[in-house]
Specification:
The protein is α+β, with helices and mostly antiparallel strands. Helices cover 16% and strands 37% of the residues. The radius of gyration is 22 Å and the shape is elongated.
């Protein structure tokens, strides 16, 4: 069975900032209390108990909670928590696994790297939405989807908003990962570049599976988020001969071949 595990950066810039700046170290009891609340909140979404999860939602976010589609988690894992200076608010980054409903991906799961905003309200940690920022994703600005039963939950803090376009087949998914060229013509001692673009709704990992003697190939990055790019730099040595460099794409993607012709 083909399994897709895509880490979708729901707020790429926010995640980068969080990774770079961990924030102040919280008192152990504060961190323990918040982690317990996050796990309870996610567990209720895993069990489909959305009404019970309402007790974890801040007052200013309840309307948003009611009018947005509910995520149903398969699994979840807290990756990091960043607190503000007085430990009254926090940003938790959680990997939430869900089923992806699209033709060609039935019964496959997708892991979304998503931000949860929490704040202290009457002595309890409560989930809330920053409405001006949480709907901004790698897919553009999202709007909450109305749920048919009228009892819905937010995509923003609890799960990433559904992208406007989801690939309808494996072939269409593969076509979203592209190299700007598949051939380089170099003279001995010269260098050239190939850019790999990620048009999928999740992160991909690009690796060099094979290169050949006399040519040095390097990638500027390995992890490429949705909408991002990686640059492959190829340098031909003085005694290089023509050959093929092959790139692997993980967790799922088409192998990319770059033919290098030495003049």
């Amino acid at each position: 069975m083909l399994r897709i595990s895509l880490l979708v950066l729901a707020a790429t810039a926010l995640w980068a900032q969080t990774a770079a700046q961990k924030g102040p170290e919280p008192p152990p009891e504060v961190d323990k209390a918040l982690r317990a609340r996050i796990n309870e909140f996610c567990e209720l979404h895993k069990q489909g108990k959305f009404r019970q999860a309402e007790q974890f939602v801040a007052d200013d976010t309840k309307d948003y909670y009611y009018n947005s589609s509910k995520p149903h988690y398969v699994s979840y894992e807290i990756q990091s928590i960043k607190y503000n200076e007085d430990f009254t608010q926090a940003l938790a980054t959680v990997i939430c696994e869900q089923y992806l409903s699209a033709l060609g991906f039935q019964n496959q799961t997708i892991k979304m790297l998503t931000p949860f905003n929490w704040k202290l309200e009457n002595g309890q940690w409560m989930w809330f939405v920053l409405k001006d920022t949480m709907l901004v994703t790698p897919f553009g600005r999202m709007t909450p989807a109305e749920h048919t039963d009228g009892a819905s939950a937010p995509p923003a803090g609890g799960a990433s908003p559904r992208p406007p376009v989801i690939p309808a087949s494996v072939d269409q998914f593969f076509a979203m990962i592209k190299a700007d060229k598949n051939e380089l013509t170099l003279k001995p001692g010269a260098s050239g570049e190939v850019t790999i673009s990620n048009g999928t709704p999740g992160m991909i990992i690009v690796g060099i599976a094979r290169q050949f003697a006399g040519v040095e190939a390097k990638l500027d990055v390995s992890g490429v988020p949705a909408g991002g790019k990686a640059v492959l730099t190829v340098h031909a040595g003085d005694h290089a001969a023509s050959g093929v460099i092959r790139l692997d794409i993980k967790p799922i993607g088409p192998p990319i071949a770059v033919r290098v012709k030495i003049e």
